[in-house]
UniProtKB/TrEMBL annotation:
It comes from Akanthomyces muscarius (Entomopathogenic fungus). Gene3D superfamilies: alpha/beta hydrolase (3.40.50.1820), Dipeptidylpeptidase IV, N-terminal domain (2.140.10.30). One of its GO terms (molecular function) is aminopeptidase activity. Transmembrane segments: none annotated. Residues 48-329 form the Dipeptidylpeptidase IV N-terminal domain. Its EC number is 3.4.14.5. This is Probable dipeptidyl-aminopeptidase B. One of its GO terms (biological process) is proteolysis. It catalyses: Release of an N-terminal dipeptide, Xaa-Yaa-|-Zaa-, from a polypeptide, preferentially when Yaa is Pro, provided Zaa is neither Pro nor hydroxyproline.
């Protein structure tokens, strides 16, 4: 990185020929697979794409065409060539290009000219044709293609390379069906047999953008896999040799948020989870450990709040810090294997804030529209709050189904407090359809973005106001931006009897016009 340039890395290989991949974003629940050393251009046999054909050359420089049925509308990808470890087989990906859907932008102050400049960028939208890949298998000894059946990976949203197993007997990749109702890990044997090693399905949608996780063990015979098949996001162990489920690792009415690390020698997993401590806000993060076989579940953090932690370099210790919106951080040192508290490192105090008439954020929860599911939110009062007055209510609304949005840890909340100090009671909560609760909670958003959890929000605000006479239920406004702006529009159109006014900033009110991945 030079000249002050800034980069955001999700993954990095520590060394050029190292097999370890490190997730730089440690809160990303996603794949962790071994990095492969790329074949050198001088290694033989060398497989390459020339024009519309796939070629192979040997050490003597003899070139031979293996297939020539590519075309301009269905080329082979020269960057997706995967040779087996024993160099007897290769997989080359062929594809049908995505359609062109250009969006035009005006650069107001380009560095190379005085006048504005128009730019065109590729910007696929819902329903557009995406790039469709098709892996093809070749026998490098016989210099010919091995026929394979693509029934298990038709109509893909995307395919992701996993790589050859160590013996070179099977090539593996992940298939995500368009519509996101089917997800498979697929194995292609060198004899051309195609099988599903892992299969996931849903009648609504698979949350691939937030919850997709797989960990391939070093011997490549097992895979740890995340799934919501039992109604909660949990970890499962698969036998890739037999292509079957071995066991469910985690289970219960709580969920795995992300995997911290996997120790294959001890066959243990450390992971971040939500809702594992009964009686606490289900969005509070905790750290836990479990064995591959599902035994030995241990919650390593302790304290009624949301936790964050940092590991010592040898993973023997961790610094555990927890807080709530109404409780400042408390930090302790713990052992990394059992979570035993060694010592208190820091306990923050609120005395100086209280002396300045600081108002703590209030937590409030009640049941949602079904009279059973708890909905959690916060209430913020003005700095000059007077219990004898009635204040208009302002909801800051964002209900995008990819996450949740109510603050859980202690912070200044300057944006929300700025509105409160203008004379509003500010509320923020997460209704049904947002992420990181049960699968049923999340499924409310399916083909139903206009819902935005609004029935839950209205009930929550009414019940909060019923015991707080200073909340003026007859004066309620709502504001939000982007998908939040869309939800503001829905609030005023469908619930105008409750929300009296609203402000939508850059609302994406027609999902057909927005980016493809979020809206599909």
């Amino acid at each position: 990185m030079e000249n002050g340039e800034t980069y955001r890395l999700l993954y990095a290989a520590l060394k050029e020929h190292d097999s370890d991949v490190v997730a730089i974003d440690d809160d990303l629940l996603h794949d962790r697979n071994d990095a492969r050393k790329p074949k050198n251009e001088t290694d033989y046999p060398r497989v390459f794409v020339r024009d519309t054909s796939v070629w192979v050359s040997d050490e003597q420089g003899k070139e031979e065409k293996m297939v020539s049925d590519g075309s301009g509308t269905s080329p082979f990808d020269k960057d997706r060539i995967y040779i087996s470890p024993d160099e007897q087989y290769a997989v080359v990906w062929q594809y049908i290009p995505e359609q062109e859907h250009l969006m035009y932008l005006v650069e107001s102050s380009p560095v190379d000219q005085l006048q504005p400049k128009m730019k065109a960028i590729q910007y696929l939208k819902p329903g557009d044709r995406v790039r469709i890949y098709r892996p093809r298998l070749f026998n490098l000894t016989e210099r010919k293609e091995v026929s394979t059946d693509d029934t298990l990976f038709q109509n893909p949203w995307d395919l992701v390379d996993i790589g050859w197993n160590r013996s070179g007997s099977e090539y593996r990749f992940r298939f995500n069906e368009r519509g996101h109702q089917c997800l498979r890990v697929i194995g292609v044997g060198v004899d051309g047999h195609v099988r599903a090693l892992v299969e996931e399905s849903s009648s609504t949608f698979i949350d691939y953008s937030s919850k997709l996780y797989s960990h391939l063990t070093e011997d490549e015979d097992e895979m740890i896999w995340a799934s919501e098949r039992d109604g909660w996001n949990h970890l499962y162990l698969y036998d890739l040799v037999k292509g079957c489920l071995k066991s469910q690792i985690t289970k219960g009415k709580w969920l795995v948020k992300s995997v911290e690390r996997v120790d294959e020698k001890s066959r243990q997993i450390w992971f971040k989870c939500y809702g594992i401590v009964e009686g606490q806000d289900p969005y509070y993060a905790q750290l836990a450990r479990i064995n591959f076989d599902g035994s030995g579940l241990t919650v390593l953090t302790d304290g009624d709040g949301t936790h964050s932690w940092k590991w010592s370099p040898d993973n023997r210790y961790l610094i555990d810090s927890w807080s709530r919106v109404d409780c400042p951080p408390r930090t302790v040192l713990r052992t990394g294997d059992t979570g035993t508290k060694i010592m208190v490192l820091e306990e923050s105090q609120l005395d100086r804030l209280i002396d300045k008439n600081w108002n703590a954020v209030e937590r409030f929860s009640t049941t949602g529209r079904d009279e059973a599911t708890m909905i959690y939110g916060i209430i913020i009062r003005p700095a000059s709050f007077d219990t004898g007055k009635k204040y208009p209510i302002l909801e800051e609304l964002y209900a995008g189904p990819h996450s949740y949005y109510t603050p859980k840890g202690f912070s200044g909340l300057s944006g929300l407090r700025r509105w409160a100090d203008l004379g509003y009671i500010v509320v923020r909560l997460d209704g049904m359809g947002t992420n990181w609760r049960s699968k049923a909670f999340h499924d409310v958003c399916y083909k139903n973005l206009q819902d935005a959890g609004l029935p839950d929000r209205i009930k929550w605000i009414k019940e909060a106001a019923a015991t707080r006479p200073w909340m003026d239920i007859d004066r309620i406004g709502v504001h939000g931006r982007s998908a939040g702006g869309q939800s503001v529009g829905a609030a005023l159109i469908h619930h105008g009897d409750f929300y009296k006014t609203g402000a939508a900033d850059c609302g994406c009110h027609d999902n057909r016009k927005d980016k493809i991945w979020w809206n599909e």
